[in-house]
User: Fold these one by one.
Assistant:
Number 1:
Amino acid sequence: MSSVLVTGGAGYIGSVTVERLVGAGHSVVVLDNLSKGHRAAMHEGVPLVVGEIGDRELVAKTLTEHKVEAVIHFAAMSLVGESMEKPGDYYQNNVVSGIRLLEGMHAAGVDRIVFSSSAGVYGEPESVPISETNRTAPVNVYGDTKLIFERVLAWEAERTGLKHISLRYFNAAGASGRYGEDHRPESHLIPIALQVVAGRRPELTVFGDDYETPDGTCIRDYIDVRDLSDAHILALDALEKGRSGIYNLGNGEGWSVLNVIDSVERVTGRVVERKMGARRAGDPARLVASSSLAIRELGWKPEHPELDDMIEAAWAWMMEHPGGYTE
Ligand code: UFG
């Protein structure tokens, strides 16, 4: 079992991963600036260092004090739309501060990292399902920052021998029971649809129904946050064996926006009030993963591949946390 620093461990995917790391017997410390994360999403008994990943000295000190052997790096700005409005902030946080984190790791002699990358690195895919060898051509700043940092890791590996695994997430969904999705403001499809049925929003706008897909709405590959988290634990094992690499994490199945709305109605027994709207800038029509490499090399196996199960978990979490996390 390793001692692990989780950056962004008070966020959505980070909190579920911390819970599962602790469950698997790892010792964990979290570094989070709480700009998006929630103190209430901190797993009990896990120390929280409130600070910046770009604070090299703080990173090195934390790694040394907690005898950390590996880092799981979630902390990032992650909204596609916002990234187009504030590109400088995204390159600063996701690239420059990420490089400072690597410098802190190097200073402390920590040479293993799992990095949260994104399907956003592919842009409009040349073919579907998308494998890791597909062309990478981001269509938004967010995806570009993730791709640049993957390259930074590869160069650092040449220079310092860093071992790195980048996990390209498709669309994270669901909840773990204790930890769930609470973005402010919320921009993701499933929580928005659930907020509509919960009476916290009047309606959902479907962003475009004129795409070249069977029902005209965008298709995404939703992956349960618990399965996503488990892949990080497997990635730690792989790093320990000296493996580096890049892996897609998705179900290999696509659901359209209307499929998601149907599922929300099925699970909650309520109607999702919706209206058709214009396309959202930067949305590829269809993103579906081939995760066969992660299955083969990491031994990953999604346990919750059904969209209804993910939505049921997200709905249960929302019912228990009607106002999200309260600090
Ligand atoms: N959508 C709507 N109405 C809404 C919100 C979303 O129709 O109110 C649609 C979007 O246009 C898209 C789909 O629902 O077609 C899913 O949108 P999300 O915002 O939930 O997720 P994205 O696919 O845009 O983004 C996710 C991650 C990003 C990552 C990206 C990779 O949140 O971090 O996948 O494609 F970069």
Number 2:
Amino acid sequence: MSHKIAPSILAANFLELGKEIDMVNASQADYLHVDVMDGAFVPNISFGQNIVKFIASRCEKIVDVHLMINDPDKYVQSFFDAGANIISIHAEATNHLHRSIYGIKELGVKAGVALNPHTPISIIENVLEDLDMVVLMSVNPGFGGQKFIYNTLSKIQKLSELRTIRNLDFEIEIDGGVGLQNAEKILQAGANVLVAGSSVFKSDDPIQSITKLKELGIEQLSEF
Ligand code: DX5
Ligand code: ZN
């Protein structure tokens, strides 16, 4: 199965939000990645449910909400109401991860768990069966436009091996500093969803940037 591309709206021009979402709608993107930051779990505030509702109402792609907030259980219902199709919470932001995951699944949407760069995969080993997605942060969350942390590649490999050994099908999404310069390596390591903020929205031709990310690896495959 081919990999998926999730442009991150955080890097968009918010004065032109509707147009930016239309660009994503017209592109080969699979998801629209939506970063919610609370200024407590991460050192930055982005936007809340109301903006997510506007974004989701215009978006024709799957709305992939990444909650970088403390106490996520309190808010999952309202992000579901706002139009989220996938909700990911941070393992570091909840005391009862299993309960938090089921709080999302019971709403009828896909549940993801995100891990900060320093958090080991072992923390989610006992809930992997319950997950639709694992988000491996390849930057310290809070800001767009940061440099990819290369240690993430070995984490991707480890998680991808676990997925194969256990015969599971959760998605592995990589978030932070992803662009054409490193996407091939990330995919080879076993990831299948690429979040791309700056490398899409800050490029001269965002639609073309999405196409290039989406078509990576296709030539090699068609040689066989
Ligand atoms: C970082 C966010 C990312 C961010 C990625 O805290 O979770 O989704 O938007 O942006 P780039 O691709 O610019 O690193
Ligand atoms: Zn994100």
